[in-house]
Amino acid sequence: MASEGLQIDDVIQILSVLADEANLQVTVKESLKGGLITGVTTVIGALIGGRIGLAVGAVAGGIGAAAMSKDFQGVGSVLLNMDHQKKEILFNRVKECCAKASISDIGRLNDVISNPDMKTKLLKIITDHVESQLKMDIVD
User: Fold this and answer.
1) Mean per-residue pLDDT, 42-61
2) Among candidates 38, 72, 61, 49, which has minimal Cα distance to 140?
3) Contact (CB, 8 A) for 110 and 10
């Protein structure tokens, strides 16, 4: 699994901080849930109040769905809350990148992150992972 120097949880923690510093966010798609809430309240409103109930139910459902939705989430928290398998996939990609840069321990990784080229490579790995493995869209 993890090598002696680089531990999965340590690397994910560093990547989380890096993603937060870069202000990376993902969209959380809840349009289906919002549509369902709006549809149900519209039907209930129509059954209870006829045409006026239809309008009131649609408006109330739309407002309720909008209030309940979470539009954006920080990538740092997404990384920390991934299941172990997804963390391991990301860890292995970072480990591969670090091996190419001759980084073998977590202390050295912290130092290298101050290098703009390495930071860019790690942010690219994070972005690719979030989009391909977690099926989330990064917000520009």
Assistant:
1) 90
2) 72
3) no
